[in-house]
Amino acid sequence: MSIDLDTLPIILAHVPVWVWLLFAWLVYSGLCALRDREQRVARLAIVPVVFILWGLSNLLLGHHGTTPVLVWLACAVVLAPAGLLSGRRLRIEPARGLVHRPGSVLPLVRNVALFAAQLWLGIAMALHPDHRDTLVAMKSALSGAMAGYFLGWALALYRAARPAA
Predict the structure, then answer these.
(1) Name one Pfam family in it (predicted).
(2) Among the four residues 14, 21, 148, 161, which has the most C-beta atoms within 10 Å?
(3) Positive or negative, the Cα torsion across 98, 103, 106, 111?
(4) Does some domain include residue 2?
């Protein structure tokens, strides 16, 4: 399934403004993550909460049926340990309640890739209703993987912050 490059500007012009604002914020967050920094635990939890809610909304508001739910759950379970492991690098300073994070390109790449994949799937579903079942399964897999990864990451953050609370 491809998207005709001639119609791409027209399609992108019809994407809601909030989607572009979310994209700008995800890019900004990713660029900030390139350098070492300290953040409050609550501030650090924003990106995982956004992606968890986005993943859950695709499950709850999306297409119903057993297969999409099972695909979503399977991908969430498979990716949760990866999120848990990636969150192990977090270091909490208990006296100040701050998290020390080493700079990394991973958040920028991850955020933009997840956004682009969700956007592509949304556009593909609108343009190719004849491939609905395949696209729903792909969207369920991506949403579940996204939610599972960030649930694992949020659990790692919670574990790291618990002694500091």
Answers:
(1) DUF6622
(2) 148
(3) positive
(4) no
